[in-house]
UniProtKB/TrEMBL annotation:
It comes from the Bacteria. One of its GO terms (biological process) is glycerol-3-phosphate catabolic process. Keywords: Cytoplasm, Lipid biosynthesis, Lipid metabolism, NAD, NADP, Nucleotide-binding, Oxidoreductase, Phospholipid biosynthesis, Phospholipid metabolism. The gene is gpsA. This is Glycerol-3-phosphate dehydrogenase [NAD(P)+]. It comes from Streptomyces echinatus.
Amino acid sequence: MSKPVRAAVMGTGSWGTAFGMVLADAGCDVTLWARRPELAEAVNSTRTNPDYLPGVELPGNLRATADAAEALRDADFTVLAIPSQTLRANLAEWTPLLAPDTVLVSLMKGVELGSTMRMSEVIEDVAKVGADRVAVVTGPNLAREIAARMPALAVVACTDEQVAQRLQAACHTPYFRPYTNTDVVGCELAGAVKNVIGLAVGIADGMGLGDNAKGSLITRGLAETTRLGLAMGADPLTFSGLAGLGDLVATCSSPLSRNHTFGTNLGKGMTLEETIAVTRQTAEGVKSCESVLDLARRHGVDMPITETVVSIVHEGKSPVAALKELMARSAKPERR
Ligand SMILES: NC(=O)c1ccc[n+]([C@@H]2O[C@H](COP(=O)([O-])OP(=O)(O)OC[C@H]3O[C@@H](n4cnc5c(N)ncnc54)[C@H](O)[C@@H]3O)[C@@H](O)[C@H]2O)c1
Ligand SMILES: O=P(O)(O)OC[C@H](O)CO
């Protein structure tokens, strides 16, 4: 009998824990790394994650540790599930501990501030591995639903299709159905920008602008994401797939989305400080809207919705004034 695939999941937040559960349900031997020893202890003793997924019973072939070396030892897959802006510093500490041929898997949906690097680029840069050793899992994957084993599809992207297929097999369960894709640029961009569009739709929902506004923002959000993707060499079809449209629809429809909820609170009139204070988990779009806009400017791409989100979240513009400006933009053809 062949030995089970070993997976280290670095991050015991909501998605790290839920995806660890998927891997364990698919038959992998899973070790979660938790920053706080008391959380690792709670996971092992209660078989739940009381801080991030209370009430969800975790499988027996998943355990937690606060010792990164122990988690990473002999891992076939090293899954990174921490906030995007903390990846570089954490991975620099973990790199000497990585198993020699491990495949690094990003669950993160963000773009690094300053460098404007996608998460797979940060991984290649810090861990000094080639693109064929880095994979991305993305798509409409709200952690709470997956933890309840509700059905979801996903995309597993890697430039090396065989590596993507290995990861696909390692996380395929009766409720989690991953597809492979070799367009890593498109898959990552789609995931990061949908958080920004999720903020915009949340703001519109909080303002009570209705479903026509929501449909319009999702569609034009996808249009500006695709424009950026094309400028960066992505396959435009990726954006109408699970990583693009699929994730946008899930995020923009769900009160479980942290980005959507963050936007809704702003749209209802909460200040940025009040909104941050009531947000207990990572809403990646809040920081990544700035790096996405930076990326758009570097590539000479117009992203009016992203620009609007930055102006509301980081420049103190009122949602009402921002809406007026968006609606007053010059009339133009739908396709350019
Ligand atoms: N939650 C979801 O539904 C979901 C789904 C798909 C993708 N994602 C993406 O997965 C990534 C992780 O999100 P999450 O939902 O698990 O977030 P979370 O807020 O639930 O958990 C974040 C985890 O990172 C840890 N952490 C925070 N700051 C850290 C630091 N400086 N160093 C090391 N660890 C730190 C926290 O302790 C926690 O374990 C994000 O990029 C998010 O966009 C989330
Ligand atoms: O809760 P959010 O807004 O980070 O969204 C979670 C996932 O990305 C949905 O696919």
